[in-house]
Amino acid sequence: MLKSVHHWMKYIALASFLMLVLSGCAKDSGVTATGSATDGKPVQGGELSFALATSPDTLDPHRSGLAVAVRVIRTIYDNLVVQLPDNTIKPWLATEWSISPDGKSYTFKLRKDVKFHDGTPFNAEAVKFNYDRIINPETKAANALALLRPYKSAEVIDEYTVKLNLETPSAAFLGNLSQALLGIVSPTAAKKYGDDFGKHPVGTGPFSFVKWNENADIQVAKSPEYNWAPELVSNKGQAYLDKITFKIVPEEATRLGSVQSGQVLAVETVPPQNVVTLKNDPKTQLLQANTVGLPYTLFFNLRRPPWNDVKARQAVQAALDVDAIVKTLYLGTYQRAWSALTPGIFGYDASLENSFKQDLPKANRLLDELGWVKGADGIREKGGKKLTLHYVDASPNREKRNDIAVIVQQQLKQVGISVEIEITKDVANVVYKNGAHDLYGNSQVNSDPDALKNFYRTQDPNATRLTIAGLADPELDQLLDQGTYEQDPAKREAIYKKVQRYLHDNAVIIPIYIFPYTVAASKSVKGLKFDSLGYPLFNDVSIQK
């Protein structure tokens, strides 16, 4: 059954090879960093302490909206399928599947030997419960809901066969089922704990939840029954580690000091200025994987004048020196972004690389043409109004994003644009409810270019959140819809290249950087790998003294 759909599936999981620093590829399908591949026989037992940069919002995968939560979620839950770095989709909790000729239903055969950590059997009813739970408005599902669309319903064919029905065909659907936020939760526990399930998570993964000490740490312990790991890792059985303690350490200096002093064995999100130092530290190893999806991008709000005029946006695009921003803040450790997608994801348009650069005369000419005249203070005016751009960014200063705002402010002043910076913890209201921004930066880890739809398609009148860009163009909507339905990979790739070119030519966005997920670990930590999106996997990890 798998073979009959293999040619169709090969391109559906449209993820990427990871770019690794100090890395090579392991013989199995996961991606490993040099020095962390298992040297000799893995050691059983021990505890890994892993410092997170921020606290997860919830450990309910269906409700989480934070990448940091996925680091923990990946240890507790499994998925129906797994996506490999070569873009293929392989079995996990599902053993095989078939797709209907119209592309609107998927029938999965399931493993018969899997149990949730609370003893609940994994079966077709459990799969149906999970996906119905995500689309139930009472769940208040976050990113999981966008990933599961256009799922409509599930039919239990027999105990270990489930048929998933879609509203429309989707070339992204199968790949999305591999993402951690569509992890399978215990129906028993989800019903028992209700809204508190995120603090009492139960899955079928290699580790089971132990406890969560608010703003301090989260502990998971190996599941002794585990025997169904995906092809992404070497160790298909129970984990080598007895326990993982995820410590929540927001302060960068404290986090780095803790790995260098040996207080913790691994830390995430190493700042650029520390990368070089750690590379030369004999006690530590540095592992880095570029995340895949939508790079960190500055989005114009096309609902607000004058930024609803393409010339005004092009003037900003021409006034900015993105190379200088990336080099100044990230010291050569981050790659510059050129498109609405990251390199490596299906459909990425490499022809956009180096396609534009700072051009101050062009920026000034465009603003002159729009009738904005420089005043005595150097800021342009028209009709008694100053040319002001309201730049909103989130607090805390993640990945030096607040610093980007300051450099943009300095660079745009050169052409007479005044930038007002608003740093807020309430992005939900300022940006997504009120649309009170002219420019706002965001990124998203994702496996498929279908993710562009959530950012650039015309606003659904029933949506609870505004889109960031506020685009409303039927031509672009048609392309984004075609990209979802198109089954021919060559045609689908061409569609997404058109979308990227449209966003570039119309200066809807300013792409800034591709985020490399960076882990510094003691050299005693072996076998740490990353999945296809750049999230750490702990199945193969062991600690060798």
Any key phrases for this structure?
545 residues, alpha+beta, D-Maltodextrin-Binding Protein, domain 2, Dipeptide-binding Protein, domain 3, eight-stranded mixed beta sheet, six-stranded mixed beta sheet, 27% helix, globular, disordered N terminus
Quick summary:
Mean pLDDT is 91; it is low at 1-38. With 545 residues, this protein is an alpha+beta fold. The protein is built from 16 helices and 29 strands.
Outline the structure in words.
- By secondary structure, the protein is an alpha+beta fold.
- It has 2 domains: 2-290 and 517-543, Periplasmic binding protein-like II (D-Maltodextrin-Binding Protein, domain 2, 3-Layer(aba) Sandwich); 293-514, Dipeptide-binding Protein, domain 3, CATH 3.10.105.10.
- Helices cover 27% and strands 25% of the residues.
- It is built from 16 helices and 29 strands.
- The strands form 7 sheets. An 8-stranded mixed sheet has the order 1-15-25-14-4-13-12-11, sandwiched between helices.
- Helix 9 runs antiparallel to helix 11 (360-369) and helix 15 runs antiparallel to helix 16 (489-505).
- The radius of gyration is 24 Å and the shape is globular.
